[in-house]
Amino acid sequence: MSARRRVVITGMGTVNPIAHNVNDTWKGLMEGKSGIGELTRFPAEEYGARIVGEVKDFNASDYIDSKSARKMALFTQFAVVSADQAMKQAGLLKEGAFDPWRAGVILGNGIGGFEVVEEQLENIIERGPSKVAPMTVPKMITNEGAGNIAIEYGLKGPCYVLATACASGTDAIGASLNAIRNNQADVIVTGGTEAAITKLAAAGFHKIHALSTRNDEPLKACRPFDKDRDGFILGEGAGVLILEELEHARKRGANILAEVTGYGVTCDAGHITAPDPDGAGMIRCMQMALEDAGIKPEEVDYINAHGTSTPTNDPIETKAIKGAFGDHAYKLKVSSTKSLTSHLVGAAGGLEAIISVLAIQNNIFPATYNLDNPDPECDLDYVPNKPVEGKIDTVLSDSLGFGGHNGALIIQRYKD
């Protein structure tokens, strides 16, 4: 039996509330720069939760020609810009760098072009169906982020989108890992994208009491694992990575950033919005990722947690980490970078995978900010309020999504 194909990361790109690229995002995380602030996208006086993680000063035509940009919803623009950064870093824009039939796109996205739906519904109500914009459907459907990236770079292999709510980006990376392992492709553009800061989404998430209402303190509102947390911060953006079969990357002299070695995926099959109270699905998911990577729990140095800052999630996730890691749970470091980035929904797993790679490269544990009054139920080392230096070879990045979705990735320092 032939050895399992190894899968490495050769490029990364992001647009998020902190910055419009990878380097500035990491710098912001190290300096404690928050991407969270008051909602400015639309008048918000009547909204109970008015704190969001908006991508600021983003003009798609700075990166994409104006004609093409007008045909894309915001989530697609974020994805295309991030993919371009990743492709450039990977060196895949050179002629003959890859076989187009062996290269694809697998993205995560939860909601699609929500702003397009809202705009065109208003058009129907106020002006009639004849006034609906011609590009409405091609802009709003969730697969268009992946489709536009494939068209831009001539990627003719697997091309699809996974929608598992807040686990979408993580599951897309896991699916890409398996597609390359199974010899369906040599190169895949993957990660997640989302643009859910719209009137309907903001009102809907607030109605189920998911969002923080600490409206007078935006910078303090996201408080993962803190006793005074009261909800997550709705964000937007994209995190895109290039996954590549190891020998393919070696042959073309690519700079290898890290290796993806494991993936676990489960469903709680319980509540539609809340995780299993015992964390059983998440425990099994993390165990699957460890088994897939062929490593022991004691080999994990850091967990980039889902850490949403909701009253329900954080103690259950803590319980799940203890269930999967046993005594080692108290020896490793855990943090939620959502405390600065906000929660990018379907893009969260993509951005957090990038942050996991950067943690390995820099040997720095990113911090959980605003952790001032620890919840007694959340008693692990969450790297409170300041990044910490330390050797990092192995990271687990986990995500949970409405519907009971659980996904976990193992990302490791690349070694020959």
SSE order and pairing:
Blueprint lengths: L6 E9 L6 H10 L5 E2 L12 E3 L12 H5 L3 H17 L12 E6 L5 H14 L8 H5 L3 H10 L5 E4 L5 H14 L5 E9 L3 H9 L26 E12 H6 L6 E10 L12 H14 L8 E3 L8 H13 L7 E3 L2 H4 L6 H15 L1 E2 L22 E2 L4 E8 L3 E8 L4
Parallel strand pairs: 3-7, 4-5, 4-6, 9-10, 9-13
Antiparallel strand pairs: 1-7, 1-8, 2-3, 6-7, 8-14, 11-12, 13-14
Helix pairs in contact: 3-6, 7-13, 10-11
Keywords:
single chain, 416 residues, alpha/beta, Peroxisomal Thiolase, Chain A, domain 1, twelve-stranded mixed beta sheet, two-stranded antiparallel ribbon, 13 helices, globular
Short description:
The chain is α/β, with parallel strands linked by helices and about 425 residues long. About 35% of the residues lie in helices and about 20% in strands.
Structure commentary:
Keywords: Acyltransferase, Fatty acid biosynthesis, Fatty acid metabolism, Lipid biosynthesis, Lipid metabolism, Transferase. It holds the Pfam family ketoacyl-synt. The chain is an alpha/beta fold. The chain folds into two domains: 8-258, Peroxisomal Thiolase, Chain A, domain 1, CATH 3.40.47.10; 259-412, 3-Layer(aba) Sandwich (Peroxisomal Thiolase, Chain A, domain 1). The protein has helices at 22-31, 66-70, 74-90, 114-127, 136-140, 144-153, 168-181, 199-207, 246-251, 280-293, 313-325, 338-341, 348-362; strands at 7-15, 37-38, 51-53, 103-108, 159-162, 187-195, 234-245, 258-267, 302-304, 333-335, 364-365, 388-389, 394-401, 405-412. α3 (74-90) runs parallel beside α6, α7 (168-181) crosses α13 and α10 crosses α11 (313-325). The longest helix has 17 residues, at 74-90. It is globular. The two termini are 21 Å apart.
